[in-house]
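It is worth pausing here to work through a concrete case rather than discussing structure prediction in the abstract. The textbook approach is simple: state the sequence, then state the predicted structure, then interpret. We follow exactly that order.
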Amino acid sequence: MLTSEFAPAQGGIGTYAREMAAAATALGASVTVAAPDYGKDNAAADAALPFAVRRFHGGLHSMRDLPAKIGLACTMAVQEKYDVVHGADWPFFIPVALARSLTKARLLMTVHGTEINETQTPLKRLAIRTAGVFGPRTEVAANSRYTRDLFRARFAIDPQRIKAIPLGVSGFWFGAGADRASTRTIHDLTPDRIVMVTVARITRRKGHHLTLAALKALPDDVRRRLTWLVIGPDGESDYVTELRRLIEASDCDVRLLGALPNEAIRDLYGAADFFCLTGVPDSSGRVEGFGLVYLEAGATGLPSVATDIGGVADAVLVDESGLLVPPEVVAIAGAINELSMDTDTRSILAAGALAHARALSWERCAAETYGLPHPAAATASPGQVKTPTADSVMP
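Step two, the predicted structure:
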């Protein structure tokens, strides 16, 4: 597996690479991950992983790194007889394609959403076409139906060579956290409080401002009973400043908790009543390709209030694991009000959220992606093409 993002850096692609490598290893594959070193000695952390990690010099991707990545992909393709060579993110698409003649392995590339739009500039499209990135033998895995359809709209490719494979949920989120009452006591949340939690970087496209506007639109008796816990690091400074101003001017109990470790997040999930993340369309071309955080919340038994954008509909099943509404204040307020006041609906959706999260394991994702034997592979979505079993994988 070749990835431009990996631990110790935090991010969705790094999570994808780590979880896929671990899941494929658990299914019997021999996995090597090539990842940047970020100028650090990562030997101790890498040794604790169940798969091999080969670090290359570098950090966050720059086009100046492309020649070195091409050399790395070609060198690794020649050195080992891999069954699968996997570009886990778009910076490795051209390097993997240029290694095609050096290996008989399956060539696999994963698209996550935003990069599909980012590769539409004339120069990037020329480079993709010249390198034959999506040419013969290239298979594409999309993280949602939305991402798959967006890719098909942007690139001409045989539909049989691209399939939607939803992401998975780490077993960590199903584990036992701290006692609900204890966590509520620590955060001064009385038993009668309705607690809604959001986990996301505070950035405009995540729609915190919409959620706040929806809270302000709630009936007074509901608004006064509800506490909104906001977990995540700051994004754009101007947006964060404005959001803080709006919160201070509102008659709502909103608590900005900042970035927290996963253990603390899981504890707060256990103390909450439902999850809420109301993303909005982004004019810059960034898209919500899937929405893994909804599944992580679901694994702790939380139903979601979500907006129907991008690939969120694969993460939140409408009226099964949550309420999926348009990115509009009135609709969001209605959904928050329903989950706040209707305990029966909340309980039904909570059970559905847990079941949906259990169905989407990382081992299922790895099995469908690499063609590894796994019982969940038999439940692949209609139209997905079964692939040969791989004994070793280079993601």
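Step three, interpretation. The chain is about 40% helix and 15% strand. The first helix runs from residue 12 to 26.
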